Amino acid sequence: MALLVHPAAPQASSTPLVLAPTEAAAPAEFNETTGFFRHLHTPRVAFGHGYTLKQVVFGLFLVFCLTPWASPPVALALGLVLAQTIGNPFGAQTKKATHSLLQFSVIGLGFGMNAHAAVQAGREGILFTVVSIFGTLVLGYFAGKWLGLGRHVVHLISCGTAICGGSAIAAIGPVLRAKDEEMSVALGTVFVLNAIALFAFPPIGHALHMSQNQFGLWCAIAIHDTSSVVGAAAAYGSQALEVATTVKLARALWIIPVAIGTAMLFKQKGVKIKIPYFIFGFIGAMLLNTFVPVAQPLAPLMTHLAKIGLTVTLFFIGAGLSAKVVGSVGLKPYVLGVLLWVVISTASLYVILHAV
Prior knowledge:
Elements: H1 35-41, E1 44-46, E2 49-51, H2 53-65, H3 72-84, H4 91-109, H5 115-147, H6 151-164, H7 166-176, H8 180-207, H9 212-222, H10 226-236, H11 238-252, H12 255-265, H13 278-291, H14 299-320, H15 323-328, H16 331-355
Antiparallel strand pairs: 1-2
Helix pairs in contact: 3-14, 4-13, 4-14, 5-6, 5-11, 5-16, 6-7, 6-8, 6-16, 7-8, 7-12, 8-10, 8-16, 9-10, 9-11, 9-16, 10-11, 10-14
């Protein structure tokens, strides 16, 4: 979908990003009283404030993500490198910022899109959306039963794969009254696969000589989270980006009926269903850009800021995928996630190449 929620923070937050010097635990290989570890964490005073080398490295990476040289895949790679080596010194702040920053970025991308083209893309994607969502949920149920996983974990991973990754999990989890560890397992599985997709999909698209329209449609169906969908499509081309974003956000609206169905299936009463309201912000921005001439000069600036926001979002996500997060999921949830992902990716790819 649309929302990207960090694996350890399924709930949205409106708290602004304040890079206070709160330290996160370093990876195990550095968590020793070695000279290198002490060097990373020894505060040094500059301009009247104390900073560690670890925080300085994070800051330099973040500044680079604001430059034209940083693309979404590069930003994600930098975050992953940071997470696997010295760790993220601002883990709590980046978790809180990721959700809101992604929403801003998606709304900003609406200023670069045409409503007429978006409607056409949505029409093409509706059949794929319906079939793939229900097919994934059914396959997930039987595959999860075969693997012996708990019903909640299976349903969360299936919804994340079928609809919109972390956003769907964050919305469905409270309906299920899922435990924190169940949410973490599902989110961790989806986010690792998102990272792989962001790097793998563009080369596959070029190798198969997919058109911009084909690739955008494939991304929207086969990649879990909106952040990775937009990142992969942006790397492929502007038309692919427009198709992918439109179809993915239309797909994200399926959170509502799936959440209602979940409450009925699992016999949960009195639960609240989270509606992804920011999607309406994206639609509003697109309508302004299409039908209000006075707003059109803002489009280049808003889309530029949105792409920067997306790049920073992916850096934050990568910085949160430490070896501890990846390893804590366990093997079976990854098997389920990979199985569902491979099936939906290959099936949709075959249909798109032969029918679109």
